[in-house]
């Protein structure tokens, strides 16, 4: 009966927050009368409840097997109370805790005061993806971003341009139309003094239409042979045709896509690694240690692969600079991944150094952008892509500043625990910056698909 008294007192406290009169907990090796300050913390209550469920009934029940009979309803009063206690324990065993209750390795942002998951089992962690806590939006912002880029990758692969048909008259006329007819006219004028029958030159108006028309309509004239012998070979139709044949390997096939797919792969790896890290890092210190390293490796991969499309497509006709820039950023990305494996790199006090390292990697992209503007200053696509790259840099930079400064939770601690804190804003800006870079890459592809080198 003493068990029931203790149990009734605890259940009364659990339901109302006020202990029943005279309730004591003396059978667990200590004697304690509930005091008003007990209302400030429920730790002792739940420890007591746990002990009662796990051990207190041993003196009340002869054999442990009879405990199942109690739960099956032989004594309705005991059964209902125990069932309710078990349900409460199972529910609140994985309750969200406050910052001060966290183990040291989980303390990262002192301005987020509550709604933490602390060392939960994996089953409960995976189920928590659908519940509300301070990591919910961190998980979903980058998980949605991952599926967005997965869709964009499939869409880009499905929309790859077909092989160009150089046998079509339309495409051939465009190629011939690029010939510099003014230079041809000047060369003809140089030859005029040596040509007989000057009045026949009036028939050369057909030249203004196309080289193809010239070759066809003047095929029977005797003056054609004289013109062919006078003009340099590069201005003849045969010369143009030869240039087309030599240049066709680069223009018949669509431009290579591997730099663009490398960027998409880096973005998906970064977003999925980040989402998984925020979901699983609360399980244990060891798993947190592993997941944070994967998370930082994903950030390095995103930054490094973001260079591949602009560098490759800008300098594809200048292999030396192309592979120089690609080599430098690849080495920097690998070095950043290795550096992130060091244990001290994960500590919260190194937050500024982590952000600075990733910022310097991104800022190194200024050099190839300036080089691009010098090399292709008259190319509209060069200016358009630079605009997208500036916008991308602003989004990434703003996200880094918010992440380091921990804005806005710094101003109102505890008010942004669930939604609106700095890491969530950082995630949104990363997805926006990566999407801006995707649009930028499409401009590069259209540019090189249409013009080649």
TrEMBL record:
Gene Ontology molecular function, alphabetical: metal ion binding; signaling receptor activity
Which residues are listed for Zn(2+) binding in this entry?
Answer: 278, 423, 427
- Which residues are listed as membrane-spanning? 137-158, 258-282, 294-311, 323-345, 357-375, 387-405
The topology of this chain with respect to the membrane is: Multi-pass membrane protein
UniProtKB keywords: Membrane, Metal-binding, Transmembrane, Transmembrane helix, Zinc
**Record's subcellular location:** Membrane
- Key word ATP-binding present in the record? no
Q: Name one GO cellular component term.
A: membrane
Biological process according to GO: response to hormone; response to sucrose
This protein's record includes keyword Aminoacyl-tRNA synthetase: no
Its domain of life?
Eukaryota
- What name appears for this protein in its UniProt entry? Heptahelical transmembrane protein 4-like
Q: Which organism is it from?
A: Sphenostylis stenocarpa
């Amino acid at each position: 009966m003493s068990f029931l008294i203790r149990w009734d007192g605890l259940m009364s406290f659990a339901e109302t927050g006020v202990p029943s009169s005279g309730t004591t907990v003396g059978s667990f090796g200590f004697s304690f009368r509930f005091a008003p300050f007990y209302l400030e913390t429920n730790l002792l209550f739940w420890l007591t409840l746990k002990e009662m469920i796990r051990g207190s009934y041993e003196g009340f029940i002869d054999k442990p097997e009879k405990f199942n009979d109690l739960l099956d309803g032989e004594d309705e009063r005991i059964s209902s109370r125990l069932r309710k206690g078990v349900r409460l324990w199972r529910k609140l065993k994985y309750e969200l805790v406050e910052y001060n209750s966290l183990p040291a390795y989980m303390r990262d942002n002192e301005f987020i005061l509550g709604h933490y998951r602390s060392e939960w089992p994996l089953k409960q962690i995976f189920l928590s993806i659908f519940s509300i806590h301070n990591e919910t939006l961190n998980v979903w912002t980058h998980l949605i971003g991952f599926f967005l880029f997965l869709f964009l990758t499939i869409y880009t692969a499905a929309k790859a341009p077909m092989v160009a048909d150089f046998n079509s008259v339309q495409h051939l006329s465009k190629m011939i139309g690029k010939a510099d007819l003014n230079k041809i006219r000047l060369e003809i004028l140089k030859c005029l003094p040596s040509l007989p029958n000057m009045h026949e030159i009036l028939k050369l108006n057909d030249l203004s239409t196309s080289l193809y028309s010239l070759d066809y309509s003047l095929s029977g004239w005797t003056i054609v042979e004289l013109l062919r012998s006078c003009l340099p070979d590069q201005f003849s139709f045969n010369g143009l045709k030869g240039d087309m044949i030599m240049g066709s390997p680069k223009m018949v096939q669509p431009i290579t896509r591997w730099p663009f797919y490398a960027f998409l792969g880096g973005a998906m790896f970064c977003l999925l690694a980040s989402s998984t890290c925020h979901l699983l890092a609360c399980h244990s210190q060891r798993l947190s240690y592993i997941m944070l390293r994967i998370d930082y490796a994903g950030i390095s991969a995103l930054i490094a692969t973001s260079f591949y499309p602009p560098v490759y497509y800008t300098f594809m006709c200048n292999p030396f600079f192309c592979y120089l820039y690609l080599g430098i950023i690849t080495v920097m990305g690998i070095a950043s991944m290795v550096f992130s494996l060091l244990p001290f790199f994960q500590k919260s006090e190194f937050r500024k150094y982590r952000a600075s390292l990733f910022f310097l990697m991104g800022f190194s992209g200024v050099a190839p952008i300036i080089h691009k503007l010098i090399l292709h200053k008259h190319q509209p696509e060069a200016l358009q892509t630079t605009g997208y790259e500036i916008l991308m840099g602003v989004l990434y930079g703003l996200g880094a500043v918010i992440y380091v400064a921990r804005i806005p939770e710094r101003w109102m601690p505890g008010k942004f625990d669930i939604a609106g804190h700095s890491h969530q804003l950082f995630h949104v800006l990363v997805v926006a910056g990566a999407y801006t870079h995707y649009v930028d890459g499409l401009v590069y592809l259209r540019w090189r698909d249409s013009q080649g080198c």
